[in-house]
Design a protein that fits this description.
Length: 135
Amino acid sequence: MAQIEKKQTPAVLNHIAIYVAELKPASDFYESLFNLPVIPEPFKDGKHTWFSLGAAGHLHIIQGDDSKATFNKNNHLCFSVPSIDDFIKKLNAKGIKFEDWAGKVGAINLRVDGVKQIYFKDLDNHWLEVNDAKD
């Protein structure tokens, strides 16, 4: 008799953590650009900010990096917004330059499925993607 394999519950993402040089400017950057709600963090040491990412989990910003690291665009965080055009207006108002995947400044990448994407760096050189994917 064949043994029935028990289906196991898949793991879910709990949080993403990024290491930054200065907590306040980095936290302000993410909060103001992405409208992320700050949530309580347990350490209360002045070196952490936690944001809710809704059902996706949390984003933890941790102060302490002094390496001036360089990151590859393939290693990025991605946020979806209802309108790329409205988001670009926000970037322009803050003087933040963006590019398409190939690196053309001010250009929007169009995926084969019609999703629009842009890429830019945060204050600590982490790559960010913003797209208008609906799910």
